[in-house]
């Protein structure tokens, strides 16, 4: 993979996301990466300095990234983790085609100081194009003349023709390449909204952290190689112990989107039923990944982690020091909670210990006997603790690259192609068909009666 072999064998492409964060290199691909990085840096700096302005000459205060899947989850996570929420320019993320998503973002914004980044590797994704049209209409209604639209819109895509047809001129388009998978693309111009909100130096530090993890992955012996160890743990937990899921618990509000990001990375990469050669898989593929920020889950689903009948292997992620030293005490509470969960998961509490605790708090022996099985916790619940001193851009870059490489190592162990996603296509195709029927452009002959009766309900509800 790191050397550029066509590891994506169904699409006959390499998967060279590591090149996107490389600090040096040769060849045409690296030259294109370096040139695009230079354009990103210039754009981000001129927007932050107020040199690239909106049509009235006022500085850009808000950047709205319109994209979905890999064109949304990575940059959203990075911005929320690293950008100062109250300092302009602020980054916002609209993904859902549900009009309420974009409307809520746009309500407080001023078209004169808003810049859209239309982010779509294919520039064919329905949700993104529909939201981009809404954004364009909002700019128009807000006084931005057609000739000035380009000052308020940038595009990131492999499909420069489609972006041009949408009205975004080539000098406002940043390229992406087919050898980068959407879910591995935050390091590319897909991260433009982050570079604007964080500033170039912090975005470059994110890349440097990922590059350091690439170097570790490429050179560390297997027994010390973090991506390999995580993949072996995933294999052990899912294939040998039969856990069908994996829970991710970042003890960090700033990392609350990490489970969303890892869902796409893990489940879209390795949620497959056939080997690279198309034969049925011999064992399970990707676990169902879920999670939420600690300590929120402790007051919700951790009951099941400790005493449920399902095995839920967990990653507990602990940035050990807060961003602001003034937050030390409550941050220490947060970390104490994470460590406590780890201990409770491992050690648990035997029925005898539970009975003793009940007696100590004054329960009668018969009542202690009755309650002890309810208080007992089996322990021996598998989990990993991932710690780093602070949530710096470097640490986040390394963490995301760690999971990227873990995902690839699991795919190698399970003989899966981690870089295609054919399973998402059929739903899109049917979606287009159903929409045409709803619009009266298709008689629905190719659809089933169940779907048609639901379309009839939709028609009735919409008058
Ligand atoms: O970036 P785009 O081409 O708009 O694609 C956005 C997303 O849509 C697809 O359905 C894929 O499942 C994702 O892997 C991709 O990230």
TrEMBL record:
Broad class of the protein's primary localization: cytoplasm
EC number in record: 5.3.1.9
UniProt keyword Zinc present: no
Pfam families for this protein: PGI
Subcellular location: Cytoplasm
Annotated keywords: Cytoplasm, Gluconeogenesis, Glycolysis, Isomerase
One Gene Ontology term, aspect cellular component: cytosol
InterPro entries the UniProt entry points to: G6P_Isomerase, G6P_Isomerase_C, Phosphoglucose_isomerase_CS, SIS_dom_sf, SIS_PGI_1, SIS_PGI_2
Keyword match Cytoplasm: yes
Entry annotation: catalytic residues: 268 (proton donor), 299, 428
MF-aspect GO terms: carbohydrate derivative binding; glucose-6-phosphate isomerase activity; monosaccharide binding
Biological pathway: Carbohydrate degradation; glycolysis; D-glyceraldehyde 3-phosphate and glycerone phosphate from D-glucose: step 2/4; Carbohydrate biosynthesis; gluconeogenesis
Catalytic reactions on record: alpha-D-glucose 6-phosphate = beta-D-fructose 6-phosphate
Enzyme class: isomerase
GO BP annotations listed: gluconeogenesis; glucose 6-phosphate metabolic process; glycolytic process
PANTHER family: GLUCOSE-6-PHOSPHATE ISOMERASE (PTHR11469:SF1)
Function: Catalyzes the reversible isomerization of glucose-6-phosphate to fructose-6-phosphate.
Similarity field: Belongs to the GPI family.
Protein's name according to its UniProt entry: Glucose-6-phosphate isomerase
Organism annotation: Pseudohaliea rubra DSM 19751
Gene name linked to the record: pgi
């Amino acid at each position: 993979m790191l050397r550029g072999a066509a590891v994506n064998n169904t699409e006959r492409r390499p998967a060279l996301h590591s090149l996107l964060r490389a600090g040096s290199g040769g060849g045409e691909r690296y030259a294109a990466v370096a040139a695009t990085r230079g354009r990103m840096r210039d754009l981000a700096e001129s927007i932050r300095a107020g040199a690239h302005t909106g049509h009235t000459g006022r500085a850009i205060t808000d950047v709205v990234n319109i994209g979905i899947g890999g064109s949304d989850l990575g940059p959203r996570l990075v911005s929320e983790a690293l950008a100062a929420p109250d300092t302009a320019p602020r980054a916002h993320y609209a993904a859902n085609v549900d009009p309420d998503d974009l409307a809520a973002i746009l309500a407080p914004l001023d078209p004169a100081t808003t810049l859209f980044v239309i982010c779509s590797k294919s520039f064919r994704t329905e949700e993104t194009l529909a939201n981009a049209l809404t954004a364009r209409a909002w700019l128009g209604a807000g006084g931005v003349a057609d000739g000035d639209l380009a000052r308020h819109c940038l595009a990131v895509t492999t499909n420069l023709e489609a972006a041009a047809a949408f009205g975004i001129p080539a000098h406002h388009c940043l390229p992406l390449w087919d050898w980068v998978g959407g879910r591995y693309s935050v390091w590319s111009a897909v991260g433009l909204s982050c570079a604007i909100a964080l500033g170039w130096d912090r975005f470059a530090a994110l890349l440097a952290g990922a590059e350091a993890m690439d170097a570790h992955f490429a050179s560390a012996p297997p027994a010390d190689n973090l991506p390999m160890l995580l993949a072996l743990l995933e294999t052990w937990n899912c294939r040998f112990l039969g856990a069908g899921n994996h829970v991710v618990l970042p003890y960090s509000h700033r990392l609350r989107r990490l489970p969303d990001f890892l869902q796409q990375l893990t489940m879209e990469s390795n949620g497959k039923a056939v080997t690279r050669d198309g034969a049925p898989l011999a064992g399970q593929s990707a676990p169902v990944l879920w999670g939420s920020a600690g300590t929120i889950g402790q007051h919700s689903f951790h009951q099941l982690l400790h005493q449920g009948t399902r095995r839920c292997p967990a990653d507990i992620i602990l940035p050990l020091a807060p961003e602001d030293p003034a937050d030390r005490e409550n941050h220490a509470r947060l970390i104490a909670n994470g460590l406590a969960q780890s201990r409770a998961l491992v050690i648990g509490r035997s029925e005898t210990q539970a009975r003793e605790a009940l007696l100590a708090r004054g329960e009668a022996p018969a009542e202690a006997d009755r309650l002890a099985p309810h208080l007992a916790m089996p322990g021996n619940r598998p989990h990993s603790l991932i710690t780093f001193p602070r949530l710096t851009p470097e640490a986040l870059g390394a963490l995301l690259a760690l999971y990227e490489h873990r995902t690839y190592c699991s795919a190698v162990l399970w003989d899966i192609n981690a870089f295609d996603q054919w399973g998402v296509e059929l739903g899109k195709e049917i979606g287009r068909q159903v929409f045409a029927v709803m619009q009266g452009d298709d008689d629905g002959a190719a659809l089933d009666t169940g779907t048609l009766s639901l379309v009839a309900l939709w028609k009735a509800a919409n008058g």
